[in-house]
Amino acid sequence: MALISVPANKSLLAKALATAMVVAGLMASVLTGVADAHGSTTDPPSRNYGCWQRWGSDFQNPTMAQQDPMCWQAWQADTNAMWNWNGLYREGVAGNHQGAIPNGQLCSGGRTGGMRYAALDNPGQWKAVTKPRQFTLTVTDQARHGADYLRVYVTNQGFNSTTQSLGWNNLQLVASTGRYAPAGQYQVAVNAGSRTGRHIVYVIWQASHSDQSYYFCNDVVFQ
Ligand SMILES: [Cu+2]
């Protein structure tokens, strides 16, 4: 907030403070509502996008603790992880994703932005969407950044995302794309081979407007 010059009397000071608070409030609502929105996987939904979709209008409802416990713990940890579902990125990684992101922190992009997204790394009963083993994955790009590439990984058969934290060695690269011109959505065909049951689909979206890399954990159950 800009510094306020100290007015000569108290009522002027109160007026200036009130104005400053209104302006700050407007700025905050603009930032959360529109942001310079970035993006996320939306099908299957990333962890925080899914929590925002299901509970964004009802995030204080205590029944979430039973119905959707991993979303509950995420909302309790930091609501901004959901309000900023489109902001899970790092800058200046220069393609060295494994160097930038330690094992156990893949779903928070290496705890990008401090602890904001850290709850997304916690193993547990994240809501998962059912998918056939061959499916089309969609990244939604609200900012029309474009993509240098998308990389899609799937957890190895036997990995248990409800009890194990995710590391690079738990993943197999199953799709790697070329460039996408700026658009609202990018799609990639994913083949999960012979996998069955619950898995994490892990996605890297390398945006094209600058060195900005996005990281998404998406929970699925393969039929
Ligand atoms: Cu962006």
From TrEMBL:
Domain Chitin-binding type-4, residue spans: 38-220
Top-rank taxon, per record: Bacteria
Alphabetized InterPro entries for the sequence: Cellulose/chitin-bd_N, GlcNAc_Chitin_IntDeg, Ig_E-set
Record keywords, A-Z: Membrane, Signal, Transmembrane, Transmembrane helix
TM annotation in the entry: 12-35
Pfam assignment, any one: LPMO_10
CDD domains in UniProt: LPMO_AA10
Name of the protein: Chitin-binding protein
Taxonomic source organism: Saccharothrix ecbatanensis
